[in-house]
């Protein structure tokens, strides 16, 4: 029997807005690309009661074990798949889904488990993989990447202003000792970043950047958007919750491009691209959490939800 406090530690973000915008209905077919603790999945199952169907993906067998127990009362209505949401097309036929969502990033359950190595607040192995089947860990990147590549990752994925100093300090430290734990990495970052006036811990941005690189998170977002559009029925809804400006930019640009009938430069008198819109945006501006939600769930502060309907 799994302790239910494991999944109640992760509060699903903007749950009400997600359900309003996805609008699950009895008899509908839905997919949740990021099962996590199963909060959004359970809400979809409840809203599409008594016979809506759901397939839910996660790379992390630990998350799947917890969510499987939570969703057990829904029996055959839910299919849980241990795979990347990028492979949606291997499980869902074209034009088959009424709704698809992803809630990107890391769950509170993953952050809280020190052995997963996601958090600088606890000491653990420098891992950060969503899936244990993945070969490269955070320790591999930190110990093996050339200094310029490390600096690039910290700058690009973490928007870390001290990316060069931190990368240089990591490389100096790894000459002496292999960096194998989250505490080691945190201390190296602290010695390079010094005292920061920012509200967040000086290691926040670097840890986020390394996690994104380990899991290829931006490539995954880029790949899932066309796969989702293909799998949705006309009228089906696509929902993406992102926590990082680069992820949100990918989603925003994709929705904007796919909502246009022609992508030719405006000065061109006749369309030659032949592009046809596949989506209509339902959220011109991203939906964000209100103050009340942020108070209860501080993680929701940086969440942005964008939604589109397939044409
Ligand atoms: C923020 S949590 C989702 C929480 C979930 N919506 C809930 O209500 O409990 C993100 C989850 O996505 C999973 N994940 C990240 N990248 C993935 C991918 N490419 N394919 C499948 N799952 C992924 C992570 O392992 C994590 O469990």
Task: Describe what you observe in this structure.
- It is a single chain.
- The chain has about 300 residues and is of the alpha/beta class.
- The chain folds into 2 domains: about 5-105 and about 215-310, Rossmann fold (3-Layer(aba) Sandwich); about 120-215, DNA polymerase, domain 1.
- Helices cover about 45% and strands about 15% of the residues.
- It contains 14 helices and 7 strands.
- Strands 3-2-1-4-5-7-6 form a 7-stranded mixed sheet, with helices on both faces.
- Strand 1, helix 3 and strand 2 form a beta-alpha-beta unit.
- Helix 8 (about 145-160) packs across helix 11 (about 205-215).
- The longest helix has 15 residues, at about 215-230.
- The chain is globular, with a radius of gyration of 21 Å.
- It starts with a helix and ends with a strand.
- Bound molecules: S-adenosylmethionine.
- S-adenosylmethionine binds next to helix 3 and strand 2.
């Amino acid at each position: 029997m799994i302790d239910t406090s494991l999944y109640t530690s992760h509060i699903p973000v903007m749950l009400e807005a997600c359900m309003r915008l996805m609008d699950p209905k009895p008899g509908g077919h839905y997919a949740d690309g990021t099962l996590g603790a199963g909060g959004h999945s359970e809400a979809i199952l409840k809203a599409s009661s008594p016979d809506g169907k759901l397939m839910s993906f996660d790379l992390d067998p630990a998350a799947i074990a917890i969510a499987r127990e939570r969703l057990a009362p829904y029996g055959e209505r839910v299919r849980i798949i241990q795979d990347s949401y990028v492979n949606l097309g291997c499980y869902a036929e074209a034009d088959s889904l009424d709704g698809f969502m992803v809630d990107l990033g890391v769950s509170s359950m993953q952050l809280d488990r020190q052995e997963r190595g996601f958090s600088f607040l606890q000491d653990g192995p420098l891992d950060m993989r969503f899936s244990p089947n993945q070969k490269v860990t955070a320790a591999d990147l930190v110990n093996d990447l050339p200094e310029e590549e490390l600096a690039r990752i910290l700058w690009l994925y973490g928007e870390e202003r001290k990316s060069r100093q931190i990368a240089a300090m990591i490389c100096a430290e790894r000459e002496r000792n292999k960096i194998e734990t989250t505490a080691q990495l945190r201390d190296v970052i602290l010695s390079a970043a010094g005292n920061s006036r920012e509200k967040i811990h000086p290691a926040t941005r670097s840890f986020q950047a390394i996690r994104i690189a380990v899991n290829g998170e931006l490539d995954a977002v880029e790949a899932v958007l066309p796969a989702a559009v293909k799998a949705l029925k006309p009228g089906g809804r696509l929902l993406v919750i992102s926590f990082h400006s680069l992820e949100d930019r990918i989603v925003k640009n994709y929705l904007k491009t796919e909502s246009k009938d022609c992508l030719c430069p405006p000065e061109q008198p006749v369309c030659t691209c032949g592009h046809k819109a596949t989506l209509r945006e339902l959220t011109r501006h991203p939906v964000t959490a209100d103050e009340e939600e942020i108070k209860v769930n501080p993680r929701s502060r940086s969440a942005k939800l964008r939604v589109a309907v397939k044409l």
